[in-house]
Amino acid sequence: DSDCPTLEGADHLSQTQLLTRLTHVCRYDRLERPKTESVNGTSQPVKVHTRAYIYFMQNLEAHDLQFKIHALLQFRYVDPRLVFKEVAPNRLKPIMGEQSLRDLLWVPHVFLANERSSDILGTAEKDILTSISPDGTVVVSTRISATLYCWMNLQKFPFDEQHCSTVLESWMYNENDLVLSWENRSPVTLAPELHLTEYVLLQMFTNTSVINADLSDLRHGSFTGNYSSLSFTVHLAREMGFYMMDYFIPSIMLVMISWVTFWLQADQSAPRITLGTSTMLTFITLASAQGKTLPKVSYIKASEIWFLGCTGFIFGSLVEFAFVNTIWRRKRNVEVKKVNSKHVLKQAITPRPARKEMSGLHKSRSCTSLADSNTTLSAHSFNNYLTVQSMPPKSPSSATLPIITTTDADRAMSDAGKVMIQIEDQPSNVNGNGWTTMTPQEVAIWIDKRSRFVFPIAFVIFNIFYWTFVYYV
Prior knowledge:
CATH topology of the largest domain: Acetylcholine Binding Protein, Chain: A
Distance between the termini: 74 Å
Radius of gyration: 46 Å
Shape: rod-shaped
Helix content: 25-40%
């Protein structure tokens, strides 16, 4: 072709002149992939060797299930049409350029399969580097900024570990025409200054796979076949310092504060209600602040189990107060066979009046004097107080009659001629049948004292099961 420029004297041509002649339409069609023929004459796929350098990685955003990276992607392949070592044997250095050189060449179309968005960093001219070696090896390097999806599993949040991948796939050519592979040496490199604030990088690994596309899967347009795919995955573990200081330790303190009500008397309604409700509201605010940073998933997370458990303990202290306050306001005493949890709680829930062995008077009362106010019982006027104690319950060992005592109180009161009769209940709490009589106030105090130990012990057991689950299950 007379219009096709010759390659003679290529050693004396400038880089631009040599490149222009190599990529002239008479020799080079950038729409066609490089063709490498095997021994038997069949065309082989283009092998594209890939390398990635990650110099920035943003923390995972749990609410959007995504993360952001800044990376340098490098693709290396051989294009036999660009070999110039034979026509320019003295030219040993590669031809280098930027976007303008890349636009003259065929380059593999590789895309990020799990990207949300991606851009070329800086300006397109300066952040794409292309080089052509004398043997036809083409290296295309691109600095990109990409936001990628990471399908996180938050069941053990905030004790979770995540595997987030960056997936590269061939877009236009299936594996019969193009095969992607990682470089044998250092396929993925992390910048030494790379640091994550919320996560710690445990490990990183690469993978090579084949993606099958059919007519029902428009991942590659309307083309069917098997497409080469590369991925590199980072294994990240969440740091616990922030969550311990901002959520777990404050929630433990709030639960412990709710136990202060057990040291307040059962009839102290105002302080106990104020303390319980304020603790509950504060804890709900703390839990909701943590939940706003997470997506609305259908499964239960470890953090939700923690907050539900702590809410149950705070709510339990409120219920305990309502229970003992109700008991405190009862009027009748109850009898229990034994002073233990089983019998006391049974009588507290379904109270039974105390047994009385005698149906005498139970309240102090006064009556008029047996003698008329004008009758003189002795030479000196005096007032008599008659005290009668109720008879103790009948038992084989005791048959004591009521004791009646009188008291001279003529100097204590000026109203003469009256006799006061007072019948007092026996102070003994244990009757002859072995049952113990407890007042409602004693029952309420007994429950409060036991709650001071039961609630902390139950909370410790809950913590043992919880932390065992998150770290060992």
